[in-house]
Amino acid sequence: MKRVLITGGAGFLGSHLCDRFIKEGYHVIAMDNLITGSMKNIEHLFKLPQFEFYHQDVSKYIHVPGSLDYILHFASPASPIDYLKIPIQTLKVGSLGTHHLLGLAKAKGARMLIASTSEVYGDPHVHPQNEDYWGNVNPIGPRGVYDEAKRFQEAMTMAYHTFHGLETRIVRIFNTYGPRMRLDDGRALPAFIGQAIKGEDLTVFGDGSQTRSFCYVDDLIEGIYRLLLSDYAYPVNVGNPDEITIKEFAEEIIKLTGTKQKIVYKPLPKDDPKQRRPDITRAKELLGWEPKVSRAEGLKITYEFFKNTLEN
Ligand code: NAD
Ligand code: UDP
């Protein structure tokens, strides 16, 4: 049985990865310090002998007994309000945490995949964003703690690949949504659905003309799985190119939930990217991957999840 270590395993994406690797017949070790994650996301896996959980901060020294075939580093606060609340931990998990995990991968002869992000492109001057664009990031702005940690993470990972011959993979993830997001994580989708359910007005930041491109979680996990098993060491965008303005997105949620609430406008956070859409040519050509779930389908499933969460 192949053994995989998934950091951030109790988080939104990490827990979906745990499910996928269990389904594919792997022994899965989830590692998490629960700073933004929840045991609820993985409690259904605890009865399985091929699943283990390590409660650990990966920014500190990591010890894992036994062999490892793959390491997927997904530990990091990911929503703007989380990483603004815990900026130093965010910088540490992307830098020190990544270094520890690369060292572990080298010691075990494991292949390492890191969760990078569309935020490495910052507030982009190239649209849509392809992997050859170097980005427009403000290192000392509020988002810099996340963006620069992720850029360092990519640089460190490439260095281990080049200098130590380590097998590495880099996925640049664009805005992803689905069940197990936290209602209070401040990201646009949980914020809007939460507000609609609670009978509050939907808070659109700025004039709502900024764009994002939302990918359903199952599509993302499939792209990551294929990238891990590919032989490609350079960054690959994985996301859904179906772009929408945030105002239109809020209107879609109003329609979906049937709420009588309206949109209210709040100040745009500093350095909020004006537009974002992945160029997924590379993922299509290398991995034969493209998203399959439409926003209409994905939003319906996610809305049901949030309703159930609030009822139970
Ligand atoms: P999440 O907050 O739900 O999950 C992150 C997990 O990492 C949490 O369970 C948290 O407790 C854990 N963690 C944080 N710091 C840790 C540390 N020092 N040691 C151990 N565990 C730690 O966020 P998510 O949306 O699932 O994001 C997962 C990864 O994907 C992150 O690396 C994020 O940067 C990346 N990503 C996510 C998105 C997205 O749209 N969700 C987009 C781009 C990149
Ligand atoms: N946003 C918004 N209202 C909210 C939360 C977010 O208008 O209550 C906006 C935010 O300013 C950004 C977009 O929605 O322009 C997506 O924000 P999110 O935090 O989901 O992701 P990111 O900015 O990291 O792409």
Describe this structure in words.
Pathway: Nucleotide-sugar biosynthesis; UDP-alpha-D-xylose biosynthesis; UDP-alpha-D-xylose from UDP-alpha-D-glucuronate: step 1/1. GO terms for molecular function: NAD+ binding; UDP-glucuronate decarboxylase activity. Its cofactor is NAD(+). Keywords: Decarboxylase, Glycoprotein, Golgi apparatus, Lyase, Membrane, NAD, Signal-anchor, Transmembrane, Transmembrane helix. It is a single chain. The strands form four sheets. Strands 3-2-1-4-5-6-11 form a seven-stranded parallel beta sheet, with helices on both faces. The longest helix is centred in the first third of the chain and has 22 residues, at 87-108. It has two domains: 3-178 and 215-241 and 277-292, NAD(P)-binding Rossmann-like Domain (Rossmann fold, 3-Layer(aba) Sandwich), CATH 3.40.50; 188-209 and 243-276 and 299-311, UDP-galactose 4-epimerase, domain 1. It has helices at residues 12-23, 80-85, 87-108, 144-164, 188-198, 217-229, 246-257, 281-287, 295-311, and strands at 3-7, 27-32, 51-55, 70-73, 111-117, 168-173, 176-177, 202-205, 211-213, 215-216, 235-238, 243-245, 263-266. The protein is 39% helix and 18% strand. The protein has nine helices and 13 strands. The chain is an alpha/beta fold. The site of uridine-5'-diphosphate has 14 residues, from helix 5 and strand 8.
